[in-house]
Amino acid sequence: MSMNQPLRLSPSAVTEYQNCPLLYRYRKIDKLPEPPSLDAERGTLVHTVLHDLFESVAENRTPPTAIDLLPSRWKAQIEAKPELIDLVSNEKEWLDSAASLLETYFTVEDPKTFEATHREIHLENDLTESIYLHGYVDRLDVAPTGEVRIVDYKSGKAPKPGWEEKALFQLRVYALLYWKNKGVLPRLLQLIYLGDGKLVKSQPTSADLESTEKTLMRVAKDISVSIEKDYWPPNPTKLCDWCFFKKICPAHND
Ligand code: SF4
Q: What are the chain's domains?
């Protein structure tokens, strides 16, 4: 990566670097391929359905409508990524597992009662001349009175007590992007966990978002130093058990 190109930052890239600089290098610098993961693909499928659900008129946004969308959206996902066929041996069980996440969604909110203003909206901003920040927001609702709510769907379970702040980082970055671009401070950030039907909510203050920006600037500086010095230390943790690169990682193969 040339030092003259702006550094591309997203909330997931920042978290990845903070978790393990070497993993960041494998993914973002070396761009090593990784096989698809079932959990991630199920998450994509459910996100697609929750996106398309809002194309129905309000009274039709019901669990049966959402579940009926699953087979066609799964077919389109396989067409785009044919290797998924080998990943799913029992399609009925697979679609049932996605349907169960969708049913949980309806226990958390009622999509008949509001309009989703933006879905899968791309937000971007040049934080500085050398830092480009961007991200895709699952849903951004603007109330008739102007208040903004940013929503992200997670297909797993809510974090244990004490870990909510870490989980909210991603939404604070989106809120910062929206604030910078539109001059409006979002009123509410909402993480919806489809694995257990729990919500994590936060009302961001300008101080919260300024502190998020400071974190971004600090991590951007650390990444730039890593690039300059080609220094990517592994950081072995429990997360290594889910890391595809464990088999080539020096922390596990010396
Ligand atoms: S196995 Fe662990 S230490 Fe090695 S790259 Fe993956 S996350 Fe980092």
A: 38-113 (no CATH), 115-229 (3.90.320.10)
